[in-house]
Amino acid sequence: MDKKILQFDPGFGIQPVSNPLGFLYDNDVFGPEVENRRLDDIRKSLMQPDCDGPEVVYSIAMDVGKKIHREMLIDRHLLFGVVTFAAGKLGAEPIRSQGHIHKVSPISNWSTPEVYEIWSGEAIIYMQEYAEDDPGRCFAVYAKQGDVVIVPPYWAHATINANPDKEMTFGAWCDRKYGFEYDGVRKHKGIAWYPHFDENNTLEWVANPLYNSSSLICKTPEKYLSLGIKDNKSIYQLFEENPDLFSFVPFPQKKKDVWVDFVP
């Protein structure tokens, strides 16, 4: 097991490890054993389903945080998840998730948003408005250490490790009643735009022909001031400072005006 020192302060005592991928928790922090997502789990959503790559694509620990906050998180229907993506490639594609939409929550009767925060490495949070033949607006949001990216309710999205030479770790606020819908993405054999590396190891995008024609907007993250995001504190520290700040995650209708024509 190789320990990794985070240069970013997530606001609580957690340390990513490699070989195998996972996390170590300080004594005042709760967290589960990781679940592994394997290459065979996501092959059908890749541009090259028969590609080679790391057996474990990423490792995820859902429901972590300070022990003193556990009941508070349960009461507010919030859950904090942490994920490390492997280094390497999936054939010519970067290490990535297959893509999904959040299920409609029984708490709010909405599909719920997600608040990402990159802790190490380089990430791309890809998202599209729909997992139908017409994907609507499509964005590839390029994020580095310390950046926050918010996926709005009902959007299909996938997480990508943009640097094949390094592992990538992020934390995220989620609805405690989280669940995933894969049908639309799997019906189209993946997201509307496939990321892949060319012969010069430059990341490019290829349109998935199973969707109608669309445009891809590549950008850096917005500031999300209307959702209370600040640059100088981690999203866990923001919760600690104001436990109701992220109530829009389990109850997105509280910010329903923000989601209209949302730009991530």
From TrEMBL:
Pfam families recorded: GPI
EC number from the UniProt entry: 5.3.1.9
Biological process per Gene Ontology, one example term: glycolytic process
Pathway field: Carbohydrate degradation; glycolysis; D-glyceraldehyde 3-phosphate and glycerone phosphate from D-glucose: step 2/4
GO CC aspect terms: cytoplasm
GO molecular function terms attached to this record: glucose-6-phosphate isomerase activity
Catalysed conversion reaction: alpha-D-glucose 6-phosphate = beta-D-fructose 6-phosphate
Alphabetical keyword list: Gluconeogenesis, Glycolysis, Isomerase
Record SUPFAM superfamilies: RmlC-like cupins (SSF51182)
Gene3D superfamilies, sorted: Jelly Rolls
Residues covered by the Glucose-6-phosphate isomerase prokaryote domain: 54-196
Signal peptide: none
Manganese is among the record's keywords: no
Enzyme class per UniProt: isomerase
Similarity-based family: Belongs to the archaeal-type GPI family.
Protein name (record): glucose-6-phosphate isomerase
Organism from which the protein derives: Dysgonomonas hofstadii
Lineage, opening ranks: Bacteria, Pseudomonadati, Bacteroidota, Bacteroidia, Bacteroidales
